[in-house]
Amino acid sequence: MQALRLDKxxxxxxxxxxxxxxxxxxxxxxxxAGICATDLELVKGxxxxxxxxxxxxxxTVIAVADDKHRDWLNRRAVGAINIxxxxxxxxxxxxxxHCLNRKxxxxxxxxxxxxxxxxxxxxxxxxxPDAVTDQAAVFTEPLAAALRVVKQxxxxxxxxxxxxxxxxxxxxxxxxxxxxxxxxTVLGRSAASLALPKQWQxxxxxxxxxxDNSFGCVVDASGQASGFAQALRIVKPRxxxxxxxxxxxxxxxxxxxxxxxxxxxxGSRCGPFAEALTLLAEGKLxxxxxxxxxxxxxxxxxxxxxxxxxxxxxxxxxxxLHSDD
Length: 325
Description:
The mean pLDDT is about 95. By secondary structure, the protein is α/β, with parallel strands linked by helices. Strand 12, helix 5 and strand 13 form a beta-alpha-beta unit. Helix 4 packs across helix 5 and helix 4 crosses helix 9. It is globular.
């Protein structure tokens, strides 16, 4: 089968074996996959991953390892990316997201979805509603991650929020926070980067024009160490800083403000898939406007080059492009 594999560098392969299923797993045929900032950072060396990349997907279940799961056959599905050991205290108490022995689809110890076929435990799968198109469903994983922020700050007395980084994830975070009733401002480095947030009816501003200590809550979705520094600069004393970025960097960071002003830092990662699918089915997020290109897997290296360009949001991959696509 075709796949995009990362070893020391990213390569396109057309000789990869179709995955063999373990117990309780499903074999999924790719329909669409999305390239995200984490994929780009993995190529740079983040997390030391080697294998097939990709974790944002919509696909069709074409085989299952066990007859008890036969009702999943031919369903369109998306899937949660964490696979826990299911025996440790963390898995039993909190679920697989923080299991110390977990595998993570296309990120840690588990081949991902930038391939014709891939496997995932049936327990990780969610059926895509008929009302949700493939091009919308492929946003389920990042939208769920955006919704995680809403849950994490719900109990705090926060009204005003800045989202630093108007890119792939930042835009989704800003929109779901706005839908939840918060006063949200999307901050970027250039006016051009703020055009789509404005189209989404979100307040915007240039990060470097924001005075110090301006927002009670700041979400860093910049994907860069410099974005974290800006987020820390503009958060108010005793404010909340939510970290959404994962990146390969060894930049020196001055964290003295965290101590002196008692900044509350929250790490934020994966979120609720069912709620994300419900939002997509309701049509409350114009996610199709985020798509800046769609490539066949055979042009995957060009797709990654496109995705890495400044200002580009979502680039999609599919097994093949046809004349009517």
